[in-house]
Design a protein that fits this description.
There is one protein chain. With 570 residues, the protein is of the alpha+beta class. The chain has a domain of 367 residues: Glutamine Phosphoribosylpyrophosphate, subunit 1, domain 1. The protein is 33% helix and 17% strand. A 7-stranded antiparallel beta sheet has the order 3-22-21-17-16-11-10. The protein is globular and about 60 Å long. Bound molecules: glycine. The site of glycine has 8 residues, from loops.
């Protein structure tokens, strides 16, 4: 994606013609945009999208397609996600007129404790939470998929697992993102003889693009899970291998941790926005709350009158993001352990104060961002979205955290173990892999879930039909990428492709800067933002929005042109 050139896109669908900085359309649009009358899938992997479509074509339901895609993406994107990790699902059931949120996030092992990543002087030892056995949290993906399928699935469990087994056995051609990830984490992967065999040539080199990547041990592990359900992972051979690997590398996760893992059903957070209901992921994700905050803080400003990417719109959007991320550090954590004031943080009274606070013509230094009164109570990662012909939708974000997680694989299983423990705060005020500021409520505790930014989101129209679903990888940037895609769609009325392709910004309170991705904005816009006191940094955000929207009675699917995904339907 480094060769992207600056492009201006003319939006004719708006009331007035607006030119926006965006990824160039044209050949990039192939694979990344699809239109279909019945069903649609957008994901970051070609085999992943194909598996969900295959299941739907075979009369499987949307949950069968979700489970198949989850296992396939675990094989196809081992750098981003996998059965050694966890995730979230937001599912809208048209028949019940109900949105569900499922949390199969990893949890801290029973022997984890608050100061486990601090040295004797109390200094954070980031390496321990990012690499190796102590960085591994108890995986939740298999338990989540199994329980969700048991509740809603139609096809047999082993049938929905078949496409992933096939892909692991027969392999797929190496693609650029995976090659880059192998290169980046090669110091870790080379230490593990089994990962060395899968991800390097016989001569120990990073393979060429197009070379087949097979995962035979993963295929055997998946067959065991197909046969035994969740017990195939959390008990017996696989569980023993995971815990022996962890013990050998001086970690603390045990068989008791694996046996006691529980998926949680949560209540989605929701708000009304521009006449539609938005349902998104509640804590332990911070993403849903902050996306809703950003949208509602900005709503009174009617930014469409300034136009997308105008100085005023970028300025106000950055201030809204800055405010939301201040709350993230202060209020968010695992709701089973700390009290998270979810209702207060998205209440109209609170958001009105937040809107008033950003009524400033100039940048507000992060140290001056005021605290609002709560009225009551207290790259990496992957995403896919599926819509079916019955008005149901799923949006699911899954992860092993950093590229190749902890860099450890459980011997003989092909499972790459996550490094999700890094999403905890090592101590208050420290920053994690994504630079997220650690708050008091997100300190390590046994069996606690680390705070996430993953934001699977579904928009439901007043007639009860799901009309849009989306999400993205990329840590804290997910929140702002999802918020901007919704703003582009509903505030600026952009067609979906343009809403996804448009240049995006990111402000996360600390560092106090607006990060802008390529192809950036015109110089004059950035000059005016600097005059308002903003610090501008040019850096990619790493998001890869996978979105589906109903447009003119058809499903439009867009897989972010920044990635190598596939939007496809029938
Ligand atoms: N591991 C990235 C997130 O959950 O936000």
């Amino acid at each position: 994606m480094k060769s992207i050139v600056f492009a201006l896109l003319t939006l004719v669908s708006c009331a007035h013609e607006v030119r926006i900085a965006a990824l160039p359309i044209g050949e990039l649009r192939k694979d990344h945009e699809a239109v279909a009358p019945q069903v649609m899938v957008t994901s970051q992997g070609k085999a992943t999208s194909a598996s969900a479509l295959e299941i739907l074509a075979r009369e499987g339901n949307i949950i069968d397609a979700f489970v198949a895609a989850s296992f396939v993406v675990s094989v196809e994107r081992p750098q981003s996600t996998g059965i050694g990790g966890g995730g979230f699902l937001v599912f809208y059931s048209k028949k019940e007129n109900k949105a569900y949120a499922f949390d199969f996030r990893e949890v801290a092992p029973i022997l984890a404790y608050k100061k486990m990543y601090l040295d004797k002087e109390g200094r954070p030892q980031t390496i321990l939470s990012q690499e190796g056995a102590l960085s591994v949290a108890v995986p939740g993906l298999v338990a989540g998929l199994y329980e969700i399928h048991k509740k809603f699935g139609k096809l047999k469990w082993e049938d929905v697992m078949a496409p992933a087994i096939d892909l692991a056995e027969n392999g797929f051609p190496l693609y650029p993102h995976l090659k880059e990830a192998i290169h980046e984490r090669s110091h870790l992967l080379r230490l593990d003889p089994e990962l060395l065999k899968i991800f390097f040539t016989d001569k120990g080199e990073v393979p060429h693009l197009g070379q087949t990547i097979k995962q035979p041990q993963m295929a055997e592990t998946l067959k065991l899970i197909a046969l035994k359900g969740r017990d195939g992972f959390y008990k017996g051979r696989v569980a023993n291998s995971i815990t022996q690997t962890i013990r050998r590398h001086k970690g603390v996760m045990s068989l008791r941790d694996l046996r006691s893992y529980e998926m949680k059903e949560r209540t989605p957070v929701k708000t009304m926005y521009k006449g539609n209901k938005i349902f998104t992921m509640p804590p332990p994700s911070s993403g849903g709350i902050h996306v809703l905050q950003i949208l509602k803080i900005l709503e009174p400003y009617k930014l469409s009158k300034y136009g997308p990417q105008s100085v005023e719109a970028i300025h106000k959007t950055a201030l809204a993001m800055q405010r939301a991320f201040k709350d993230r550090a202060e209020y968010l954590g695992d709701p089973d352990f700390v009290s998270v004031p979810t209702a207060g943080l998205i209440s109209p009274e609170y958001l009105k104060q937040m809107s008033e606070f950003i009524n400033s013509d100039s940048a507000i230094p992060s140290q001056d961002v005021k605290k609002a009164n709560l009225p009551y109570e207290s790259s990496e990662t992957t995403h896919f979205t599926i819509a079916d012909s019955e008005g149901n939708m799923v949006a699911s974000t899954q992860t092993i955290n950093g590229w190749f997680g902890s860099g450890l694989s459980a011997k003989g299983t092909g499972i790459i173990l996550n490094n999700e423990m890094d999403d905890f705060a090592q101590k208050e005020g420290t920053q994690n892999l994504f630079g997220a500021l650690g708050g008091n409520k997100n300190l390590v505790e046994a069996k606690k879930r680390p705070l996430s930014s993953m934001t699977p989101t579904i928009v439901v129209a007043p007639n009860g039909e799901a009309v849009m679903g989306l999400g993205s990888p990329s840590g804290t940037r997910i929140i702002n990428c999802v918020a901007q895609t919704l703003l582009n769609t509903y505030e600026y009325q952009m067609p979906l492709y343009e809403a996804v392709a448009a240049t995006r910004i990111h402000h996360q309170f600390v560092p106090d800067e607006i990060r802008i991705e390529s192809p950036y904005f015109p110089e004059s816009v950035e000059k005016e933002l600097k005059e308002k006191g903003h610090t501008i940094v040019h850096k990619e955000l790493g998001c890869s929005i996978q979105a589906i929207k109903k447009e003119n009675g058809q499903w439009v699917g867009v897989s972010d042109p920044r990635g190598a995904g596939l939007a496809e339907g029938f």
